[in-house]
Design goal:
Layout: E1 10-11, E2 26-31, E3 34-38, H1 39-46, H2 51-58, H3 63-70, H4 79-94, H5 98-105, E4 111-112, E5 115-116, E6 125-126, H6 135-161
Length: 163
Amino acid sequence: MNGVLPVNDIVMEFKGDYSFLSNFYPCQIRVGSDVYSTLEHAYQASKTILPEEKELIKRAPTPGKAKKLGRNLTIRPDWDNIKCEIMYSLLKEKFSDDKLKKMLLKTEAKELVEGNWWGDDYWGFSFKTKKGKNMLGKLLMQVREELKLKKKSKSEETSKAFN
């Protein structure tokens, strides 16, 4: 977390106006031929290679239930090595939606911090321990920067076409 930025340049929690940043936010996420109702569902299902466990997660009625079920899956052996890559690809899928893309781009240069009270200091920043890697926030900012570059590139191409 960057302690130099003014408070209004930091999103400290993915609630209210920023709830769309949460993995629990309702949106369709396609992974292969499967469609999940939230990024959380897709992420939890990605932990396993067993089709029946993926289906169990997909059918979970809420993202909270999907997360809970994800704690008892047969975890794929390479999970710790690929979980960030999986999260990144799921975030790219989520923010390929035009509405969500615009919302993410509106955060402009704000630092995005997944502040939480449940003690997640890997994906977020734990208010309990005052520590956290904030990997989700970092990946969201990476996706946002890539979308900005893509938008700028398209704008430049359009400009060249009219000159």
